[in-house]
Design goal:
Blueprint lengths: L1 E3 L6 E2 L11 E9 L6 E8 L2 E8 L2 E8 L3 E10 L3 E11 L7 E7 L2 E8 L12 E4 L20 E9 L1
Antiparallel strand pairs: 1-12, 2-11, 3-8, 3-12, 4-5, 4-11, 5-6, 6-7, 8-9, 9-10
Length: about 160
Amino acid sequence: SFTFYPGMIRIPNSVAPNTRNRSFAVTADVEVPGSGAQGVLLAHGNRFGGYSLYVLNGKLVFCYDFGDMQHYTVTSAEAVPAGKHKLGLDFKYDGGFGAGGTASLLIDGKPAGQGRVDHTLGSMYSLDASFNVGEATGSPVSEDYKIPFKFTGTLEQLTVTLK
């Protein structure tokens, strides 16, 4: 497990959690104001490959960019309500090199959305990709947002657990 805090950005791939070719989970401890929140919780990679967990239009979203050839997006059925919450992603990998998996979104440990990622990048996202917490840098993983798309609620911490 790796724990990160807001403002930890541009972490090089060489020292970021290696989520390629494996199952992993992400948990973000957040507080959403009454007016709602949006923005990136985690972005690993860029427009040439990677994944991002973010809040858009009040809903939790996961996007996996397969080398800028295919985008797989999962969106929660319900909006994230105001208050303190644990927002999460559980990615169950199929096994093998560059295989797919199932992405499940969680709000306070309860299922909030699920979708299929047919293919993943097995070796690297891109040479200049980085790992970012609380905002995105470089180019965006998802076409849903523009950089830096900082999280507008309070992000207390984010944990990535390799399985």
